[in-house]
Design a protein that fits this description.
binds magnesium ion; alpha/beta; binds 3,4-dihydroxybenzoic acid; binds S-adenosyl-L-homocysteine; seven-stranded mixed sheet; 223 residues; 8 helices; Rossmann fold
Amino acid sequence: MSDSQLWDDVDAYFTTHLAPNDEVLEAALRDSEAAGLPPISVTANQGKLLQLLAQIQGARQILEIGTLGGYSTIWLGRALPADGRLVSLEYSPKHAEVATRNLARAGLDKIVEVRVGPALESLPQLADENPPPFNLVFIDADKANNPHYVEWALKLTSTGSLIVVDNVVRGGRVIDADSTEPDIRGTRAAIELIAGHPRLSGTAIQTVGGKGYDGFALARVLA
Ligand code: SAH
Ligand code: DHB
Ligand code: MG
């Protein structure tokens, strides 16, 4: 058996027991695929991890950058109390439309708001509204802008908030200091920003499984 087949099989074992998709999550994936969205949502195990992190945070306000069809949004939204709020930023009107339907089916339309446009335009608009600090920020959009997203996350959070950055390994390409790929450069810049920032304490974890070899960075906002 190849290593990657084994990783998939172990992921399936953990998912079956610990993070099974219910009908709403299955439908979100099915309708995303039917609408032609790329199959790049977090895995079920990763979605459950995001949900647990949000619960550990006691999150009442969550910010997501990169909605796609709303699969990760549903996992995160289910961690919120009925009067919580999740703002998810999405560039593509088509993705946002699919997500909005998926979130309505999940019964999350009262607490989740999908905002369409380039996140670097939506973020200053959001900041102008002076929202209460977000307790968790999930960064999962265009990786080239990751350092900018971490900077915005710092402006929109407070002490104890958690910033999660998806896709920081990309099959190991993250270690290529000479890479000219915008995604790799953006990811490296975000890692180095977290590493050197006086208000952040972070780490990164490699993952294998349903989405191949990748990983998450986590950063806690300090005083
Ligand atoms: N978080 C989702 C996956 C997001 S995929 C999940 O796990 O279910 C990345 C998404 O970011 C795509 O839908 C893409 O359209 C969006 N995106 C890309 N560039 C963006 C930008 N500049 N601003 C906002 N969203 C962007
Ligand atoms: C891609 C984007 C993602 O957010 C992800 O989790 C996996 C792949 C991509 O753009 O290829
Ligand atoms: Mg991702």
